[in-house]
């Protein structure tokens, strides 16, 4: 074969999402997101935007990094590992899913912050493979929505256990209730924020595309955004947080 494939020409048969994943488009959406964050914020602290690339390929990571995002979130160990291997250096990987014991050893050196620790078993498993790992404990604020997270009354003991096991507990993480009225979503985030403050934990990972402004108004220090940056997910991995499963 002679000649090189043309680049820059829209290809037929390209998945619908592929063409919108340019750094320019993501940068434009990021600017809008930052604007909305600034308007929702009540305190001065910085809010980190974590780009959630689940359901998207490595192009989403490249586009996010090109748009100036440094923090990338993934729900599945396998996806994180495969994107990690092709991503530019300097990306901070946030693991948002459930810990899978069999993947923990491979995952451990790649992850910057573990969101979603919710049991003593996970604490011990992680502390064994990654002493001093930075973690967030997940609080279940809306029982039934995502069957993940520790009940609020169990969180203080879990945090104490994690600290005792040597983990670096930075804060709390929560997924707001889906399809709930804004006041209810906000009440849930407020409860997580109060819990975090009472435990002296500085970081709060809360807020997704549908509710990040409410989370920021209640003091979120990190928001986890997929759709707002990349558009609607398509395909088998398109499911939302309710579909986070043990695999
Ligand atoms: C998918 C997911 C997100 C991002 O969801 P969007 O609604 O697309 O912003 C954030 N957090 C977790 C835990 C997720 O699973």
Number of helices: 9
Low-confidence stretches: 1-14, 236-247
CATH superfamily of the domain at 97-229: Alanine racemase
Residue share in β-strands: 15-25%
**Which structural class should the secondary elements be placed in?**
alpha/beta
Taken from the alpha-carbon principal axes, the silhouette is: globular
How would you spell out the order of helices and strands? HEHEHEHEHEHEHEHEH
Q: Helical residue percent?
A: 25-40%
CATH topology of the domain at 97-229: TIM Barrel
Termini, distance in Å?
43 Å
CATH architecture classification of the domain at 97-229 = Alpha-Beta Barrel
Supply the CATH class of the domain at 97-229.
Alpha Beta
Q: What does the radius of gyration come to?
A: 18 Å
Strand order of the largest sheet: 7-6-5-4-3-2-1-8
Strand runs, count: 8
Bound chemical compounds: pyridoxal-5'-phosphate
Mean pLDDT: 88
Largest sheet: 8 strands, parallel
């Amino acid at each position: 074969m002679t000649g090189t494939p043309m680049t820059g020409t829209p290809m037929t048969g390209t998945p619908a999402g592929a063409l919108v994943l340019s750094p320019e488009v993501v940068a434009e959406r990021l600017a809008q997101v930052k604007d909305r964050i600034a308007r929702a914020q009540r305190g001065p602290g910085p809010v980190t935007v974590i780009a959630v690339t689940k359901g998207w390929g490595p192009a989403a990571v490249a586009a996010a990094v090109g748009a100036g995002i440094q923090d990338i979130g993934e729900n599945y160990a396998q996806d994180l590992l495969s994107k990690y291997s092709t991503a530019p250096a300097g990306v901070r990987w946030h693991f948002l899913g459930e810990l899978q014991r069999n993947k923990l050893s491979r995952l451990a050196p790649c992850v910057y912050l573990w969101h979603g620790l919710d049991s003593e078993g996970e604490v011990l498993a992680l502390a064994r493979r990654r002493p001093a790992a930075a973690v967030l404990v997940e609080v279940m604020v809306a029982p039934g929505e995502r069957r993940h997270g520790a009940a609020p009354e169990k969180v203080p003991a879990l945090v104490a256990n994690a600290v005792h096991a040597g983990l670096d507990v930075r804060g709390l993480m929560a997924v707001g209730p889906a399809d709930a009225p804004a006041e209810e979503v906000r009440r849930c985030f407020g409860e997580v924020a109060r819990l975090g403050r009472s435990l002296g934990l500085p970081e709060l990972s809360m807020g997704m595309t549908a509710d990040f402004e409410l989370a920021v108004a209640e003091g979120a220090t990190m928001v986890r955004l997929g759709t707002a940056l990349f558009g609607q997910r398509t395909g088998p991995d398109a499911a939302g947080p309710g579909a986070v499963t043990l695999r």
